[in-house]
Amino acid sequence: MADKPIEGEKRVFMTGNEVVAWAALAAKAEIMYGYPITPQNEIMHYWTRMAPKFGREFLQTEDELSAGFTTAGGVLAGRKAFTATAGPGNTLMQEPMSMAEAMRLPVVVVVQQRGGPSTATVIYSQQEVTMTTMGGNGEGLRVVYSTATHQELFDYTIKAFNTAWKYRFPTFVLGDGYQAKMRESLTIYDPEARGVTLLPAEAYLGKPGTPGVDRPPAQYRNTYNVEEELYEVLQGYFKDYEKMAPEIAEFDAFDTEDADLVVISHGVVSRAAKGAVKELRAAGYKVGYFRPITLRPLPVKELRALGGRTKQFLVAESANGQLARLLKEAAYGCPVEMLPMYKPGVGITTEEVVARVKEIAG
Amino acid sequence: MSVQPAMPKSWRMDTKPHKFCPGCGHGLVLKALGMAIDELGIQDRAVFGCDIGCSLLSWDFFNVDSIQTHHGRTTPVITGLKRANPNLIGIAYMGDGGGYAIGSQHLVNAAARNERITAILVNNTQYGMTGGQMAPTTLPGQKTETTPYGRDPEKTGYPVQGPEMVAAITREGSYVARGTIANLNQLKGYIKKALQNQIEGNGFSFVEVLSACPTNWRTNAEETWNMVEKEMPKFFKVGEIKVPGAGKEGQENG
């Protein structure tokens, strides 16, 4: 059996789904549970081909409810476990993720967004932002990384396992069908060779010793008897989350200092926004670029500072204002005007962003 | 004269008396399970998963590592756990609503995949925790909150034959039985065999247990036992339905 999936560093040209499988291997993920849904299928395809060579496991479940709950079971047993899904599968995935939130289970989920509502398209969207950040009957106690490039798919899939196991909140890598299916160059690497410490997993259940004799039994519940009991537990969770938020919130920005208008986007759309802002700057427009990498938690401090000194935000997204809703909440009370550029379920090009900014500028 | 009833060693004493209603069958099923755990000496590697519904009250019942899951989702949680650490003995404990309605796809597929886990399903013919609605196991004519004039099989079907279904979709190596709280020694034997079958890695193990819910049945002691011992067995045949090594037909006893 091969020792390490990746020795040192390697320049590769592959699809995003293949990247995720390599990243999970590199992150020392031990088991994947999954159910077929486009456009994430090839994550399973590559995982099932590579996993046995490195002593890793796979289980194909009967649906995404089961994929999520078996992943929770794998985590409870003390394994780095993950699953991947999209669209209607992500809808079902929200039930197990609410249990993961309630029990602080470090489950990792890769989501490759497709069109919605319903079955919609198998191709692309950014319409799973609301559901992935705030899904389930709860309070959004999860971490969501929105990737823009294949390099980021690799980097953040590895990071997702560390964030999950360090803070014990379910952690999502939010990609999309374009990233899933497109081929792109990137460098894959052994994270430890780069000095990245991979946090070890730890069993919740089945630790050594006889419960009640050598140690207290490990017993986890998600049901509480009275309102105050739940309230108290949640206060502890909120406190942990608030402490974590500034430690993990990430963003990318440039040319915002003197900008009258800042284009805000996330994920793959930010690549169009980046190109547009560079082009507009070269043409003399006072525009800036801002991209939250963590959609949950958002980089609130930076957003508010930006919203306090910029006249306009142009929010470009392949959804009907799902990112904008998060931004409005974060920037509430800031004087900035928020302008929409919504193309639900459809990609956004550099040219379109340039044209829209010029139109706004008049 | 004061004699303390013998409690299984694997029970967690500081959570007793338990939280179930007076006359509830869960305590008896969990006693049989506790004795089986004791006799097999697996307290240190058993993991007890309980569903939502009345079974959720058992989350701190044993001195055994335990996980309370969602309604219908105990089977996949224990499946995932067992796949990740095959040394553990995974026990999925659920009611008839959890196993045969909302979680039926999990039961069917775990059985079909021959997951090396032990599922114990308590059949009390209705949804207890939510106040006595019709379940897949409700008897024809039985009054529940959602069949106030009695279950009409023409409109809502006949009681689900769970173990028979599981037996039909599993292959050699699985263990399937139906026990009853009216015969605890037999029930303990079934549960023990179901656990032993997992320990030996033979295959999926499933025990349905005929149980009682006097609270929602609105029955006194005599009526309760009449239901468990006479009415329920008319539809739910007690015995072993599939035993590894016994050939296709299985065997029956009890």
UniProtKB/TrEMBL annotation, chain A:
It comes from the Bacteria. Residues 259-334 form the Pyruvate:ferredoxin oxidoreductase core domain. CDD domains: TPP_PYR_PFOR_IOR-alpha_like. SUPFAM superfamilies: Thiamin diphosphate-binding fold (THDP-binding), TK C-terminal domain-like. GO terms for molecular function: oxidoreductase activity. Keywords: Oxidoreductase. Residues 23-245 form the Pyruvate flavodoxin/ferredoxin oxidoreductase pyrimidine binding domain. This is Ferredoxin oxidoreductase.
From TrEMBL, chain B:
It holds the Pfam family TPP_enzyme_C. GO terms for biological process: cellular respiration. This is 2-oxoglutarate synthase. Residues 61-209 form the Thiamine pyrophosphate enzyme TPP-binding domain. Gene3D superfamilies: 3.40.50.970. The lineage of its organism: Bacteria, Bacillati, Bacillota, Clostridia, Eubacteriales. Keywords: Oxidoreductase. It comes from Desulfotomaculum copahuensis. The keyword Oxidoreductase applies. GO terms for molecular function: oxidoreductase activity, acting on the aldehyde or oxo group of donors, iron-sulfur protein as acceptor; thiamine pyrophosphate binding. The keyword Protein biosynthesis does not apply.
